[in-house]
UniProtKB/TrEMBL annotation:
Family: Belongs to the short-chain dehydrogenases/reductases (SDR) family.
Xref: SUPFAM superfamilies: NAD(P)-binding Rossmann-fold domains
Family annotation (Gene3D superfamilies): NAD(P)-binding Rossmann-like Domain
GO molecular function: oxidoreductase activity
UniProt keyword list: Oxidoreductase
Native source organism of the sequence: Micromonospora vulcania
EC annotation from Swiss-Prot or TrEMBL: 1.1.1.-
Pfam families in the cross-refs: adh_short_C2
InterPro entries xrefs: NAD(P)-bd_dom_sf, SDR_fam
Protein name (Swiss-Prot/TrEMBL): SDR family NAD(P)-dependent oxidoreductase
Amino acid sequence: MRVAIVTGASSGIGQSAAIQLAKRGSGVILTYSNNQSGAMETVASIEKEGGAAVALPLDVGRSETFPAFRDSVVAALRETWHQDTFDSLVNNAGFAQMAMFEDTSEELFDTFMRVLLKGPFFLTQALLPLLADGGAIVNTTSNSALPSGLEPGYSGYASMKGGLMVLTRYMAKEFSNRGIRVNSVAPGSTRTRLADNAFERFPEVIPLLAAKTALGRVGEPDDIGMVIATLLSDEGRWITAQNIEVAGGYGL
C-alpha cells in the first residue's frame, strides 16, 4: 500500500494534496500544528471516499521534536497499514508574513528560517530511513523566490523558499542512488489561510492579483494539490530536481 506524509494538511494546499493523493489510492499521514479541527476535516474527507488517513501533531519549527514524530509515524504505519515504510513526502507546512526589508526583525527572520528551511531539511533527514526506495518528495516553495513573483515585503520569506529550491536539487542529487525523486512546486497567489487568512481579511487584493495573472484569477488549493499528487505518482516518474511554478502565469 502506498502511503504519503503531508505536512501542514489541515487547510489549503496541504489539505488539497492529502485529499488528491488519497483519491489516487494512497494512504495519508497528515500533520497539523494549531488547527486540529481542520486536520480532522481532512481525515473525514479522505475516509468518506473510502481512503485511510491518520492526523499527527507537528511543529516543523521545532526540530528537537522530530525523533518523537518519527516514532509516531512508525506506529501509524504499523497500526493502520501494517508496514514499516512510506512512499512519498510533501514538505508543505509553513507560514507567510509580509515585512519590508528594513522592518524585518531578527526574530522573524529566524522563525522563517526554522519553519521554512531548517524544518524541511531536518524533518526529511529524520524520515529518510523510513522512505521506501523509489519513493518521491515534493517541497512547497513559492514564486516569490522567482523573478515572476518578486513583490516588495517578502525578502525574508522568499529567501528561505529560494533556499528550499536549492535544497530540492541537492536532495534529488543525493537521493537518486535510491531511486528517490525530489521536486518542488512554487505556487503563486493562492486562496489559502496563509498570512492569517489574508484573503478573507483583505478581499480587495484579489482583483489586483487576478489582474496580474495571465489566466485571470487567483489560484485555488486544488490547482496546486493536483500538481503535487501528479508529481508523486507514476506520471511524474521521469521528473526530478525540478521547481515547477504553478501560478497561472503570474506576472506574464
